Please model this.
Amino acid sequence: MTPHFDQLVAEAASVSVDGWEFSWLHGRATEERPSWGYQRLLGERLAGVRAALDIQTGGGEVLAGAGPLPPLTAATESWPPNVDKATRLLHPLGAVVVADADEPPLPFGDEAFDLVSSRHPVTVWWDEIARVLRPGGGYFSQQVGPASVFELVEHFLGPQPEEVRRGRHPDDAVAAAAAAGLEVVDLRSEKLRTEFHDIGAVIYFLRKVIWMVPGFTVHHYRDRLRELHEQIEREGPFVANTARFLIEARKPGR
Model:
């Protein structure tokens, strides 16, 4: 068992985690997708505006795949490898990528965009979103909900307090949007099934989605990784529940 474990660990610890697509996990992990189809819905909204902003765009994959972009399209990203990847992907499509620290203020003037979008933002600066939206403009986002994949998180970090498990609750997003002066016009939530078929998939996921187990390294968590590897070998895929919600808000005005 040890050579098999070591081989999986070495492979997953060395593969690139740049960008925001998960093709390396094909055949190694599965995740149910929300029924609403975020990328398709985003494309429909992009088709109806002239100026759009995608926040925390990752490698630009979701925005690039949403369809033709508006005449003025910008995207922000904070992680330098993703800035480079998004630039290569989005520039040929007519979008500018701006390196941004994911902290207020957004590097744009007031009322600059008809649409602001974001898929799985780490933080949401609602006041800034409201500021850069034109009156009548909209915010469209798919976000990670409360206690998402916490079966995996708690394997490494132990039981989490209720306030942590409740974090990212859609009700809080609605309240924050309203406090920023935005009107929520659509809100949907789903719980989805995720399966990890080998320990390499777990390592790749935790290296890429860095906020799940902050400071994760293979060296620090090697004993817990081995325990989970042995559990998967003995019982089959490790199952976790993913939480997702879709939120759409409008800025009052024309």
Observations:
- The first strand starts at residue 29 and ends at 31.
